[in-house]
Design a protein that fits this description.
Blueprint (H helix, E strand, L loop, with lengths): L1 H18 L17 E9 L1 H7 L4 E12 L3 E15 L4 E17 L9 E19 L2 E2 L6 E2 L16 E23 L2 E16 L8 E2 L3 E2 L3 E12 L4
Antiparallel strand pairs: 1-2, 1-12, 2-3, 3-4, 4-5, 5-8, 6-7, 8-9, 9-12, 10-11
């Protein structure tokens, strides 16, 4: 009798153990650790060249070099050249060309990811010192057969038509940019990306004879403006 009771108790214990769910194995995603230095990239902006070829008023090209630190911080230097040579509807010719540079820092929002795509926010400081020419197109007098000032150019104080020919005027500007952009891996060490920049004028100086219309690296001479870049970037083959 005792043997029968012992056998029944043992069987019930085995059934109770079998009914309990097995403990779940804990799964943890290993944290990705990046070294301090993760390479240097060199990029070329194609937006300014493409805009000029499609009939835009401005032409610009620039080269950007950045350093990948911890896959999170990207100090960057941008050096470029901007120019314009255009007429307005009133017959005024404006021409300017000069280099510019920017210095800044990008922050990779996806720094914890191990894939080769980046989403950036950042800031820039920009500066350009340049010269510009402004000339009003003269008009031929059909009666006296001589050139007269352009009637579209009027003196806002004294009235009347005035001639305007000033070459080699000098100006400079300091500005700040807020940056948002992405960089996507294409093939091997090649990347492509775009960015949007909000630009804010910090300080500027203009020639006494007139303000500039275009600032290399900044755009139109406004209190603030927006810019776009489209870049092809190459990761240098050393780390």
């Amino acid at each position: 009798m005792l043997l029968c009771l012992s056998a029944v108790s043992s069987l019930q214990a085995q059934q109770t153990t079998a009914d309990k769910p097995a403990p779940r194995a804990e799964t943890t995603t290993p944290e990705v650790h990046f070294p301090l230095f993760n390479g240097i990239t060199v990029g070329v902006d194609l937006w300014g060249l493409g805009s000029s070829l499609l009939g835009g008023d401005f032409m610009s090209t620039e080269v950007a070099v950045d350093v990948n630190l911890k896959n999170r911080l990207f100090p960057i230097v941008e050096i470029g050249y901007g120019s314009t040579d255009t007429w307005n509807d009133n017959g005024t010719h404006y021409e300017s060309s000069a280099p510019y540079f920017r210095l800044g820092l990008n922050y990779n929002i996806l720094f914890k990811k191990s894939f080769k795509n980046y989403l950036f926010i950042g800031a820039r400081y920009g500066f350009s010192s340049f010269k510009y020419d402004v000339n009003a197109l003269s008009v031929n007098d059909p009666i006296w057969n001589e050139e007269v000032p352009n009637p579209n150019q009027s003196d806002p104080i004294w009235g009347g038509s005035v001639s305007y020919h000033h070459n080699g005027m000098k100006a400079s500007m300091h500005w700040m940019e807020l940056y948002f952009g992405l960089r996507a891996h294409i093939w091997k060490e090649l990347y492509m990306g775009w960015s949007v920049r909000m630009k804010y004028r910090m300080s500027s100086s203009a020639d006494p004879y007139g303000d500039p219309w275009y600032v290399p690296g900044y755009g139109k001479y406004l209190s603030n403006t927006m810019g776009v870049t489209y870049t092809i970037t190459y990761l240098l083959p050393f780390k």
